[in-house]
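Archive transcription. Copying these from loose printouts into the bound notebook so they stop getting lost. Printout 1 of 2:
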Amino acid sequence: MKLTYVTGLIIILFLILIKWNTNNLNFMTGEFNIETFNNVPEKFLCNTNEVACILSYQNYNQSCKNSFGVWKQLQDLNHNKQIKGKKLKIMAIDSTKNPNLAINGIIDGPSVSLVSRYNIKNYDGRMNLQNLQDFLNKNI
């Protein structure tokens, strides 16, 4: 019995060491799968009563991966919500797979833009939920 406990502990420590070496400990914190993001459809255009908050990311970039949890929370709280008479859509796009849809041009790291029918406002701040909420409330 003691041997299997020690063996199990060694295996777990070995797996953590492998993950630590690859700089990927998401399995310990709950990985946010990008497939759960609302993706920007091809030829996307906001209607006059809509506004879209769009995260442009690169799946290989660690800063982007670090922002996925916050983005998922923002999406869950606000997608299809009415703010100041506008329907808010929270979307994301992998700019490496869709370079023509990147809003801020070529940027290595997460980028957030608020897009309406005739206007684009870029977010320049820390990627945390409160700052993103404030950005939305101020600019919609």
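Printout 2 of 2:
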Amino acid sequence: MKSIKSCVCALLALILVFSLASCDTAKEKIVGTYDLVSSRGGGMDISEQQMEIFRASGLSATLEVRDDNTAEMDIYGNKVEMTYNLSKMIFIVNGKNTKFTFDGSKITIVSNGTTMVFLKRD
């Protein structure tokens, strides 16, 4: 009986180590600078081609995700500081939670009927 308890404890410790390691890996993957590549909602759709034209003319919209659980969204000079919770997949702005998804290269934020897609820079 004692050896079963020891095995279970060792297994739980191993699972905890792997889960913590995967959190760091996910955080390492999401950290970086992203460019807004499309936006839809609020009566306005901006395609990837239109966003390329905006960037070429000097208008930029970016999202910087930092490793200290903070982020900054800069939409054409309007900057918003926020924090994020990777396990809940939310950005927190002024106490309000906004869900996002991350597929390894894109962050998609959906808020108040608007969807913004950000692509990670190389």
